[in-house]
Amino acid sequence: MIRGNGMLNFDWLTGIPMGVAKGVFLALFAVIGLLVLMIPSDYIYEGLENPRWWHNLKLWAIADLVFIFITYYIF
Amino acid sequence: MLTGIDYFVVIAYLVGMALLGLYFRKFVHSSGDYFLAGRTLPFWAIGMSIVATDIGLMDFIGVSGQAYRYGIAVGNFDWIGSVPAMLLGAFIFIPYFWKAGLYTIPEYLGRRYNDYVRTVASLTWIIFFAFDLGIMFWASAVLLKALLGWPIWFSIISTAVVVGLYTIFGGLTAVVMTDVVQMIIMYVGGATLVFLGFYHVGGWSGLSDKIAAMGDAYRNHFELILPANTNTPFPWTGILFGLTFVMANAYMIGNQAIVQRCLAAKSEWDAKASMIWGAFLKMFIPVLVLFPGLIAIVIHPGLEDGDQAFGMLIRTLLPPGLTGLLFAALLAGLMSSIDSILNSTAALWTKDIYEKFIKKQASDRHYLIVGRIATVVLLVFGVITSPVSSFFPGIYVAVQTFLSFFQGPIFSVLLLGMLWPRATQWGGLAGLVGGITVSATLYVFKGSLFTIEDPFLYVSWWSFVAGFIITTVVSLMTTPYPRERLYGLVYRLHEKEQGRSGLRSRFGGVGK
Fold first, then answer.
1. Phi-psi map region of B42: left, alpha, beta (phi>0 left; psi -120 to 50 alpha)
2. What is the domain range of residue B72?
3. Does residue B340 share a domain with residue B237?
4. pLDDT (tens digit per residue) in A39-61
5. A14 and B227: CB-CB below 8 Å?
6. Chain-chain contact of B84 with A28 (C-beta, under 8 angstroms)
7. I need a labelling partner for B93 at 20 to 30 A (CA). Which of B109, B118, B266, B356 fits?
8. Count of structural domains within chain B
């Protein structure tokens, strides 16, 4: 029986301290932020005739990520 | 119970929604207007509509109930279960869907893979939405009966008539614009309850101190990340692998009811911006649906059923008038989900099934009429099948389980289709069907394979892995489409090919 070893259940990660688990979530947000910053600017503004600074969707995405990063950092 | 002024607010809301929705009927002249609002929608309306569609009446009750039992970990579904997926959708998937001029997500799968993949995906969504509609009608009617004392059939028929009127005549424009108003009402109604609740319990510090003083059972109520071996349904491993990597992406990128409004954006930039704006708005949802559960722990401790928390709080905290506003918010949550399901299912039926297999190359007016008839049929089907929930209490779980079979495999096929040019049509079909088979097998043997009672997060993850591996292996054994055939369907493929040919010509020039 597979029951008990918890392989599919990720029980093998039970020993990871909660501080590390939280770090994984925070690192995920940081990595997503870096990937967003690497997107070419011309791709961001596609579909706009006269782009303004506030059309920069990278800034919007980073604002979302900062908000969620702080939430997970606190809780 | 409601007072006269509360009834006035609720009835004014229902009449106002019907009139607002009907106003938009004058903009519907073609199937493109009906299903995609003529591709005229601005980002702010789409973002608000996504949030309104996502949050239903049952979320107010169910999420606050889970917060009452398990604490803020349930907020993961609206935070990490939305934001990363919506950013992925905004920057990778949605721009390509929009540029391709799609009506439905299965249509993308048809172009990227083949018609078999498109049909399997479309029929799955149609079956899920059709049955979900009846379940939603019944669950909401039961709730309205408990809270308002409305007879079951009065609730069902009145909701169906109001939603049906504006959805049938006004199409997606009416759906999105009423969603905008409904989202505002949901936010104002929900925030009012939370504000009064915090005032009652002494603010945030009063709430956290009082819950902390209630003993060990409430020790984790302010923890978002719970241990892998937690007794709750939200272990951090399941949240990370099942929710963040799979279910959230499948929902935000593969769900027709969510993505269809992005396809109706007036520009590619608006399509991208709508998702990021929606993600921002969505981060406030837990405040509205989760905090009432926590507040109820202090005001009404010891409830046997956590789902009673929201209703109890309404009765305790809200004065006449504001109670009506909150009921309008609850109705808004219900109606904004039903109208989206109606329009999306009609789009799936008309574009993926009727136009593809029943009547090709008919006039656009013909497809507009078919779309409207499909909406009426769905509405009637939803009303007629709604009592099924009372005869088979397990049907809600059964229908949700049916969808969860599909979430992991559909995302694996979408992901590989968008990012890997080598993925072939037969790889996609095998990955989708094989992944669904793995999901079903995992559910059948869940007692032997998993140690937690409801392993839906883990099943999503493993069926995604299965779909991913099967698609990859079969693709490597079969012939891919020519790369030119995939331009506009694979992320930045055309740009990369142009870059390579530019380099080749420059290198050739130097050689000469």
1. beta
2. 4-23+53-391
3. yes
4. 988 899 988 888 899 999 999 99
5. yes
6. yes
7. B356
8. 2
Identify whether B73 is part of a domain. yes
- pLDDT score for B511: 38
Residue B235, strand partner residues: B226
Q: Of B365, B391, B417, which residue constitutes the final position of a domain?
A: B391
Q: What is the domain-level CATH number for residue B86? A: 1.20.1730.10
Contact B276 A64 (CB under 8 A): yes
Chain segment B78-130, per-residue pLDDT in tens:
999 999 999 999 999 999 999 999 999 999 999 999 999 999 999 999 998 99
The dihedrals phi and psi of B226, each to the nearest 5 degrees, come to: -105, 150
Which pTM was predicted? 0.90
ipTM over 0.90: yes
Instruction: Classify residue B296: in a domain, yes or no.
Output: yes
What residues of chain A lie within 8 A of the CB of B91, using their CB?
A: 36, 39, 43, 57, 61
Give CA–CA dist B399/B55, Å, rounded.
Answer: 18
Q: Return the structure tokens found at B124.
A: 């799955």
Tell me, what's the pLDDT at A4?
43
Is A25's CB within 8 Å of B276's CB? Answer: no
Q: Which residues of A sit within 8 Å Cβ distance of B?
A: 1-4, 6, 8-11, 13-14, 16, 18, 21-22, 24-25, 28-29, 32, 36, 39, 43-48, 55, 57, 60-61, 63-65, 67-68, 71-72, 75
Residue B432 sits in the same domain as residue B345:
no
Confidence of residue B206 (pLDDT cuts 50, 70, 90): very high
Q: Please report the number of interchain residue pairs, chain A to chain B, with beta-carbon separation below 8 angstroms.
A: 117
Residue with tokens 């997060």: B457
For residue B90, is it within any domain? yes
Backbone Cα Rg of chain A:
19
Higher-confidence residue: B213 or B145?
B213
Q: In 3-state terms, what secondary structure has residue B296?
A: helix
- Name which of A21, A44, A46 is nearest B236 (Cβ-Cβ): A21
Q: Is residue B42, in this structure, part of any structural domain at all?
A: no
* A69 contacts: CB under 8 Å, gap ≥ 6: A26, A29, A30
